[in-house]
Amino acid sequence: MTLKIISAKEIVFEGQARSVTLPGSVGAFTVLDRHASLISTLAAGNIVYKDEQDREHTIEVPGGIADIDNNIVSVCIY
User: Which residue of 19, 22, 29, 54 is 20 to 30 Å from 36, comparing CA positions?
Assistant: First the structure.
């Protein structure tokens, strides 16, 4: 799936990911390949994603919004 993490200032990450764990406002949740469409607010916490080589990466975020649709995870952080 494609993961895009953007802020008002920059593109933080854009590339392929095997899984993405997001800090949802009512609890963390994990998105896998071909996840159902979803929009969620995000709380302060960590976005953890695995790249195509199964390496884990962590990005600390103050909160934001996530949109999952058509195998694209778009995250806009504050």
Answer: 54
Domain ranges within the chain, ordered by starting residue: 2-77
pLDDT, averaged per 10 consecutive residues of the chain (78 residues), comes to 96 97 97 96 98 96 97 97
Q: Show the tokens assigned to 18.
A: 């095997």
Tokens describing residue 60: 């600390």
Name beta bridge partners: 11: 6
Q: What is the DSSP letter of 36?
A: P
Residue type, 42: L
CATH class, range 2-77: mainly beta
